[in-house]
Amino acid sequence: MYNLLKDDRGGQIFLVLLTFAAILVPILNLSTGVDNPFHVSTLTVTLVGKYLAFALLALSVDLVWGYMGILSLGHGAFFALGGYAMGMYLMLQIGDRGVYGNPDLPDFMVFLNLKELPWFWNGFDNFWYAMIMVALVPGLLAFVFGALAFRSRVTGVYLSIITQALTYALLLAFFRNELGLGGNNGLTDFKDILGFSLQADSTRIALFIASAIALGLGYLACRAIVVSRLGKVAVAIRDAEDRVRFIGYRVDRVKLAIFTFSAVLAGIAGALYVPQVGIINPGEFSPLKSIELVVWVAIGGRTTLYGAVLGAFIVNYSKTYLTGAAPEIWLFALGALFVLVTLYLPNGIVGLLKRRRVEA
Amino acid sequence: MSALDQVRQKFRRDQVFDVVNKQDYSHVDTSHGQILYVEDVSVSFDGFKAINELNFYIEVGELRCMIGPNGAGKTTMMDIITGKTQPDKGTVWFGQNINLLKMTEPEIAQAGVGRKFQKPTVFEYHNIFENLEMAMAGDKSVWSTFRAKLSSEQHDRITTVMDTIGLSEHAKQRAGALSHGQKQWLEIGMLLMQSPKLLLVDEPVAGMTHQEMDKTGELLTSLAGEHSVVVVEHDMDFVRSIANKVSVLHQGSILAEGTMDEVQNNQRVIEVYLGE
């Protein structure tokens, strides 16, 4: 761990802050009264927990985009698939407490006149099985997709376009009721996780801490890749792909390994997101979402990892604030932020901070 | 060959499938003194014959210069040897036992063919040490690359190569900040790290000053002997200063072969270079 963070000042600061937040926020929520000025409301806990999941997602994008030059405009798909896997587990925990009171079938299936669970729902009542699927489904999709794309040497903007097509195709598929995943309403009305009520403060705090831990571990895992020789080769692929091939590396395999790992991270982020917001629907597959998360990384600063985390926090906090205070200007604000950062801060906000330090 | 014949070929009962019978790239059989056999190779792009019945052999430890006017097929020839382009016909063997046409670029590199590009291509974001570290021969599968740790011998090896290419003072400098000539040397250094048996060097002195050229010439001559080196170059003075054997490439085939003086006095070469 010392080696991972040796030359990573920003990462050290980030992990310290994350640890503090993971300890302090629960304490401030549980041990202070509502009228105490230091009180952190459960709403805020859940909100920050959601940002933590987004930050993990941003991390996975920075790994493939910043370090390997693959601009994926479909990473939202892996996030959503992880979210759906978690949602399916939560759905089966509802039991007979649904509107129709059917102990075996979720509400939407009763509504669609299904007689039994579709085959792929089998096993999802087991938490650990569902957790394996959270990593496996996005990972497998990324593996198959990547194996085809990287072997045929699809790169640059063409690759971006087909990742976009991938998420759009999934969007259309998940909108269909016949798929057996809730159609356009998605999965919602969750009651509890591992027997704990999702409405309880303690469960929300546990989810918050789990998100913080996942983000911290995800950060360290990305760092481990980035500082290894494999990480250097990934950057080399970004800068001079042919050269890497001619010094004897199987470029397609390097890309495939890192891309798949990144998709698994995105899936885990989705699984942490769903119980905190209480719904997963096909909207998460929308190409716009995937583009938005690329914007987070660009604003925060590429190729630093912690920049991606910062970007996810800044953009999503602004979004929460602005969509509450002045909903009509949010998209303009996001657009303006992106344009300004692209024009004046090619290395994002982190780049600005770094420049300051070099000048000082 | 008809489809049926192809199927028969694939399912011949006296041999096993290619996938089962993996080629062994670790050993290059050069017992007959030749390291590279290029025979009857032709390739055309949209009807234009870039390489036309090309034949040549490179001996072990030889330093061979290839010259020729623009469009003579020099770079295409390198593309074929390193697996980037598949020829329409012909054979390319590395030693007597390795068929290069069946291999991918990384496999060819692993087998021991190093290539320097026409435009110097180094990893600009990384420093010189890291550039050489990545190029180092060894297991380059994903997992071993992830787990790779630098041993002290490997460290020494990188330092030695940095000395050879004269860049040891710049070890921690980003490759992107190097001068054009230094980038060329770094790229040659990266080739050396691969411990190749055959080096293909495309225009090593393009854009260099005279001192840099002399230094590059020394470097390449010192490499011959231990490695076999093929240099493609435009600059006649440079070629004269390093070559003992020169091949002239014209319209995709070898026009003349011999010492620099022989080649320069060859009537056909004069015609090609000076026009009819």
Polypeptide structure, described:
The complex is a heterodimer of chains A (360) and B (276). Chain A is mainly alpha-helical. Chain A is 70% helix and 2% strand. Chain A has one domain (2-286). Chain A has helices spanning 2-5, 9-31, 42-65, 75-93, 107-111, 127-151, 156-175, 201-227, 229-239, 241-246, 251-277, 287-300, 306-325, 330-344, 348-359, and strands at residues 187-188, 192-193, 196-197, 279-280. The mean pLDDT of chain A is 93. Chain B is 36% helix and 23% strand. Chain B has 276 residues and is α/β, with parallel strands linked by helices. Chain A binds chain B through residues 225, 228-230, 232-233, 235-236, 238-240, 242-251, 253-254, 257, and chain B through 82, 104-106, 109-110, 114-115, 117, 121-126, 130, 133-135, 137, 140-142, 145-148, 190, 194.
Quaternary: heterodimer
Shape-level CATH architecture of chain B: 3-Layer(aba) Sandwich
Gap from first CA to last CA of chain B? 43 Å
* Global structural class of chain A: mainly alpha
Strand-and-helix sequence of chain B, N→C?
Answer: HEEEHEEHEHHHHEHEHEEHH
Return the CATH topology of chain B. Rossmann fold
**Rg on CA atoms of chain B, Å:** 20 Å
The overall strand count of chain B is 10
Measured as a percent range, the helix fraction of chain B is 25-40%
Labels describing this entry:
heterodimer, A: 360 residues, mainly alpha, two-stranded antiparallel ribbon, 4 strands, 70% helix, 2% strand, B: 276 residues, Rossmann fold, 6-stranded mixed beta sheet, 4-stranded antiparallel beta sheet, 23% strand
Q: What would you say about this model in short?
A:
By secondary structure, chain A is an all-alpha fold. Chain A has helices at residues 2-5, 9-31, 42-65, 75-93, 107-111, 127-151, 156-175, 201-227, 229-239, 241-246, 251-277, 287-300, 306-325, 330-344, 348-359; strands at residues 187-188, 192-193, 196-197, 279-280.
